[in-house]
């Protein structure tokens, strides 16, 4: 009787049908599973050290992330890898777009893996947020190297300023070295100050050129010539061979006019054809000679120590700057002061000093 009554009651008309959950249980489980799948910093470190590429890739992604939680984890991983880093040679390659960097790295990289080396290719390209990563777009030019199990190719960190991209590449070098890569190639396109950034993170700096219309030295930044440990004239094939050899003479002459380098190394000029894979072993021999000479003289280590000091200072400078410019009050005060300076209402120095005074008086984090 009572059960009958219950059934007919309007209050129980939905008996037997559970009310819908406000939250989607399966979605929650999916998220939980995903979280569980995210490897811990320790797991990534041991993965990297045992040569697992997925761990290496994931850790580099954490380095590149702008999420503060990821940054924390990335720092832990770098710390764990640091003791295992430093056992490599680092070669920087620069040259204007179209000179053949990607094609060269394909030929050079496969030559090195055939010698039994483990090669990691990274890039510093501050413009990559527009071009979607210099290496990524070029992976088609590195068909062999992409498939090579002794090579690791990573497109450049995108966006941000050069300082940020460069720092991330430097951190990625540490992880690659800990992952057993003994030859690190850093590619950069010759725009802005990216060569300087790359120069300060590599042991050997190679400038790729092609022979021009005769006036080889025109348009080439003096600073880059000074930084180069070798100049390689690419596309020395077919009708170009003669011109390439002429360019070689001209560059050689020009290089002799520069004061001697601190390393005492006399920069070399060679020709090659990245497409025909010619002249590649000569380039590696030159680089090897350089390493032999500078390791013996102590310059190799000295330069790395200097670079570490430089990067410490760079990181401090960069973070101070970004902290300053990202304060909401500073952003609006800066705008106001810019206008005031524009209208001659305040001197630029007084405006700057006002902003800084405000910044230092604030409890900033
Ligand atoms: N003839 C010739 N063409 C080359 C050589 N190396 C590269 N190239 C061509 O030059 C163009 C630009 O090469 P790429 O590697 O993409 O240059 P990047 O912009 O410096 O990376 C491509 O069409 C290549 O096929 C070479 O040694 N000889
Ligand atoms: Mg390229």
Structural account:
It is a single chain. The chain has 365 residues and is of the alpha/beta class. The protein has 17 helices and seven strands. The protein has helices at residues 2-8, 25-37, 41-49, 53-64, 68-82, 101-114, 128-131, 134-138, 143-147, 162-178, 194-199, 222-227, 241-256, 280-297, 299-325, 328-342, 348-361, and strands at residues 89-95, 119-124, 151-153, 183-189, 204-210, 230-234, 268-271. Strands 3-2-4-1-5-6-7 form a seven-stranded parallel β-sheet, with helices on both faces. α3 packs across α4 (53-64), α4 packs antiparallel against α10 (162-178) and α5 packs across α10. Bound molecules: guanosine-5'-diphosphate and magnesium ion (MG). Residues 95, 97-103, 138, 141, 234-235, 237, 273-275 line the site of guanosine-5'-diphosphate (GDP). Guanosine-5'-diphosphate binds at residues 95, 97-103, 138, 141, 234-235, 237, 273-275. Residues 87-238 form the AAA+ ATPase domain. InterPro entries: AAA+_ATPase, GTPase_ArgK, P-loop_NTPase.
Q: Count the helices. How many?
A: 17
- The third-level CATH topology of the largest domain is Rossmann fold
Into which percent range does the helicity of residues fall?
55-70%
The number of distinct β-strands equals: 7
CATH architectural label of the largest domain: 3-Layer(aba) Sandwich
- Widest sheet, order of strands: 3-2-4-1-5-6-7
């Amino acid at each position: 009787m009572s059960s009958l009554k219950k059934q007919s009651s309007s209050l129980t008309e939905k008996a037997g049908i559970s009310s819908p959950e406000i939250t989607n249980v399966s979605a929650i489980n999916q998220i939980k599973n995903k979280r569980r799948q995210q490897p811990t910093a320790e797991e990534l470190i041991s993965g990297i050290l045992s040569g697992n590429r997925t761990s290496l890739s994931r850790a580099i992604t954490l380095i590149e992330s702008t999420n503060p939680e990821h940054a924390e984890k990335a720092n832990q991983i770098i710390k764990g890898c640091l003791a295992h880093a430093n056992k490599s040679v680092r070669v920087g390659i620069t040259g204007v777009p179209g000179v053949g960097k990607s094609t060269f790295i394909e030929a050079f990289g496969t030559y090195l893996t055939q010698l039994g080396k483990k090669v990691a290719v990274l890039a510093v390209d501050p413009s990559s947020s527009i071009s979607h990563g210099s290496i990524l777009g070029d992976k088609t030019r590195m068909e062999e190297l992409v498939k090579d199990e002794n090579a690791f190719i990573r497109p450049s960190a995108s966006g941000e300023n050069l300082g940020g991209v460069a720092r991330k590449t430097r951190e990625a070098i540490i992880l690659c070295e800990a992952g057993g890569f003994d030859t690190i190639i850093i590619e950069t396109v010759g725009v802005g100050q990216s060569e300087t950034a790359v120069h300060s993170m590599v042991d050997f700096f190679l400038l790729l050129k092609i022979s021009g219309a005769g006036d080889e030295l025109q348009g080439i930044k003096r600073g880059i010539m000074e930084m180069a440990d070798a100049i390689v004239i690419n596309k020395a094939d077919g009708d170009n061979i003669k011109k390439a050899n002429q360019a070689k003479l001209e560059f050689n002459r020009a290089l002799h006019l520069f004061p001697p380098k601190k390393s005492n190394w006399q920069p070399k000029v060679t020709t090659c054809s990245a497409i025909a894979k010619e002249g590649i072993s000569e380039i590696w021999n030159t680089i090897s000679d350089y390493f032999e000479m500078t390791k013996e003289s102590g310059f190799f280590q000295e330069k790395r120590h200097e670079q570490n000091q430089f990067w410490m200072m760079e990181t401090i400078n960069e973070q101070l700057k970004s902290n300053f410019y990202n304060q909401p009050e500073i952003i609006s005060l800066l705008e106001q002061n810019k206008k005031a300076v524009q209208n001659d209402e305040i001197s630029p120095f007084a405006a700057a000093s006002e902003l800084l005074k405000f910044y230092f008086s604030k409890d900033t984090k």
